[in-house]
Amino acid sequence: MAYKLHIPGPIQVSEKTFKAFSQPMVGHRSKDFQELYARVQPGLQKLFYTKQPVFTATGSSWSVMEAAVRNLSVKKVLTCMNGAFSDKWYGVATSNGKAAEKLQVEWGKPVLPEQIDARLATGEFDALTFIHSETSTGTLSPLEEVARLKRKYPDVMFIIDVVSSLSTKKIPFDELGVDVMLAGVQKALALPPGATVFTVSEAAFKRVEQVAGRGYYGDFMEFRANHEKNMTPSTPSISHFYALESKLGEILAEGLDTRFARHLENVMIVREWALKNGFELFPELPYATVGLTCIKNTRDIDVAALVAWLKQNKGIIIDGGYGKIKGRTFRISSMGDETTAGIYELMANVSEALKAVTA
Ligand SMILES: *Cc1c(COP(=O)(O)O)cnc(C)c1O
Fold first, then answer.
1. pLDDT digits (tens, 9 = 90+) for 271-313
2. Which of 155, 182, 201, 225 is surrounded by the most beta carbons within 10 Å?
């Protein structure tokens, strides 16, 4: 049975995307590849609202999250933590030999600019890691306000994970003035997992030039040098470039603003369902993210049974909660290619499942 994925990544991949993904290989140093690379670039730049090159790394989001720390920090990294993904970044920094300090916030709460400001004021840091949309808790931290701190701390490199928010709402890289922005393609971009798109500011490149031990595979200088030739440092997942070409075409045909509005409509349907059925959102509403909903199990239902019923009876897979909030929450993804009609249908199925497991 083919399942319909409504977990927050990887998400459902369309037939059209798979078809694009499975086009024949070309040599990665060939003119054909260079042309493909060049065709994808303007769409990526529009998506990131940037004039900077947008790179595509072959590897999941962590490959670039790790590379960003290696490329940008010599002093100390402030790791902003408020959920499973952001919490991991501290260990990623220290395991790469970087000094790091935790800014730990309770799960489900956003990381706020005043909390970051207080730490950066010590002058100890030259980089910070920040997750815009913490997928494990469905929490959106106020990126715009945080990015404004960059003016006060120009020497601190702001590394921003937009893995589950890119293309769900406007995130204008150049205007924000942050230094690195990255997203794995298996979340809102609805591509098969295995690639990460990212961009790097001019200021960040000035830092990178001075940093030793950047590593080989994730060296940002290599990405930039190869980009000049419309190529990647090593053999990339060429399939992902085909899929990106197809997906960016769809995104731009729909229009970015229309896409953002659709994502908001979708998530509103899920949020309303949750409240109507006696649940609460895990984060406070102003900080609820757009691509998915993390629902607090305030009714104390058997979440595992709900998830299992949906899979068995409807072929739909939702998520039963991540890590330490497994069972206390459940998550439903409404990002990517999902239509509002599709989300209404999904929630009707979840209602049926809820009835069955609470009967
Ligand atoms: C999924 C996710 C990651 C991890 O991504 P991988 O592609 O598995 O490396 C990191 N950050 C956020 C916010 C995510 O949602």
1. 999 999 999 999 999 999 999 999 999 999 999 999 999 999 9
2. 182
The finding on whether 290 has its CB within 6 A of some atom of ligand 1 is: no
Domains of the chain from N-terminus onward: 4-10+256-358 (3.90.1150.10), 15-252 (3.40.640.10)
| Ligand 1 proximity of 159 Cβ (cutoff 6 Å) | no
**In 153-284, which ranges are continuous DSSP H helix?**
173-176, 202-208, 220-227, 238-254, 256-276
Closest residue by CA, ligand 1 atom 4:
61
3-state secondary structure of 324: helix
Angle formed at CA 173 by CA 17 and CA 236, multiple of 5 degrees: 40
| Of the candidates 311, 273, 266, the residue with the CA atom closest to the CA atom of residue 292 | 266
Q: Please tell me the distance between residue 179's alpha carbon and the centre of ligand 1 in angstroms.
A: 19
184/194 Cα distance (integer angstroms): 8
Q: Is 151 helix (H, G, I), strand (E, B) or coil?
A: helix
Let me know the angle formed at the C-alpha of 111 by 108 and 112, rounded to the nearest 5 degrees.
130
Structure tokens at 206: 């000035």
Contact indicator for 103, 141 with CB cutoff of 8 Å? no
Residue in 192, 127, 197 with CA at minimum distance from that of residue 163? 197
Q: Is the CB of 289 under 6 A from ligand 1?
A: no
Give the mean model confidence (pLDDT) for residues 204-219: 97
Q: Which of 161, 168, 196 best tests ligand 1's pocket when mutated (most atoms within 8 Å of CB)?
A: 161
Cα–Cα distances in angstroms (integers) from residue 231 to residues 22, 27, 29, 65, 280, in the given order: 20, 11, 7, 21, 47
